[in-house]
Design a protein that fits this description.
By secondary structure, this protein is of the alpha/beta class. It starts with a helix and ends with a strand.
């Protein structure tokens, strides 16, 4: 019996994830990364609901998706037709969406978004049964790093109600330097940024906020992230986990030369 099955009817403090979702091609690939997503889904306690903070939803103020049945969003272009046939349609979670709104002043709700591929491309490997209520929280384009952290810190209490909080981005994300061969050698600076970021996250002498600041102060930041939306979800994962023990590195590695697939579980 897996842990996911074993704990399906109980409520407890859920872990927090940061996932590297990588190329949309991972939706239909059988590789080391997708196998790891499948394994994580069987090892985690089964959540009552999932809240994803995806790099692919940015708004001018924080918003949550509050619908019974969120739309599946195919927000990628120019890929094989097979990808657009992948269906992932779990229910939404108005119950938890309202709890997020109550916890965070200024957060709005919308029915005009759903689940983008930063969410469903990962979850369709982790939870293929599509039965766990799932919703998203947007990234506020106007917020400073400390604002993102403070917002996410307010979500910690919901973990004790069975909510799995998942930041979805990439530790390294530079499409200007991408090689469309998924097994192309990593750019040296990409490997260095991934490794040094993981070392910061594993540093037990730093608070969660200090870890977030440390990653964003890297001299390689501009090369690893020409724009920072794919790194911001790690701030949410760190803040929701707070100052708990060092994360477990579930996945590590550079795909397509300049995309980190690093995935971490915060206890």
């Amino acid at each position: 019996m897996t842990k996911a099955t074993e704990n399906s009817n109980s409520v407890f403090k859920m872990p927090v994830l940061f996932v590297g979702h990588g190329s949309p091609m991972n939706m239909i690939s059988d590789n080391v990364y997708t196998k790891a997503f499948q394994r994580i889904g069987t090892e985690l306690p089964r959540p009552k609901a999932i809240l994803c903070i995806s790099a692919h939803w940015i708004t001018e103020c924080p918003m949550v998706v509050n619908v019974d049945q969120p739309e599946q969003i195919f927000d990628f272009y120019g890929f094989p037709e097979e990808l657009y046939k992948v269906m992932y349609k779990p229910p939404g979670s108005p119950e938890f969406a309202e709890k997020v709104i109550a916890l965070i002043p200024g957060v709005g709700k919308t029915e005009n978004w759903g689940l983008d591929h930063g969410t469903w491309a990962v979850l369709h490997h982790m939870y293929p049964d599509q039965t766990i209520p799932t919703f998203q929280l947007s990234l506020d384009s106007r917020a400073k790093l400390q604002d993102h952290f403070a917002l996410a810190r307010s979500l910690r209490a919901l973990r004790e109600e069975g909510l799995l909080i998942m930041g979805s981005g990439n530790m390294v994300h530079n499409l200007r330097e991408i090689d469309w061969n998924s097994e192309a050698p990593a750019r040296p600076w990409a490997s260095e940024f991934e490794q040094t970021s993981i070392e910061v996250l594993e540093n037990s002498g730093l608070s969660a906020e200090e870890k977030a600041i440390g990653i964003f102060k890297s001299p390689l930041l501009a090369q690893a992230h020409p724009s920072i939306e794919h790194l911001l979800p790690i701030v949410y994962s760190l803040a929701a986990a707070s100052d708990e023990s060092s994360p477990k590195v579930e996945i590590k590695g550079i795909q397509n030369a300049s995309i980190s697939m690093a995935t971490l579980r915060f206890s």
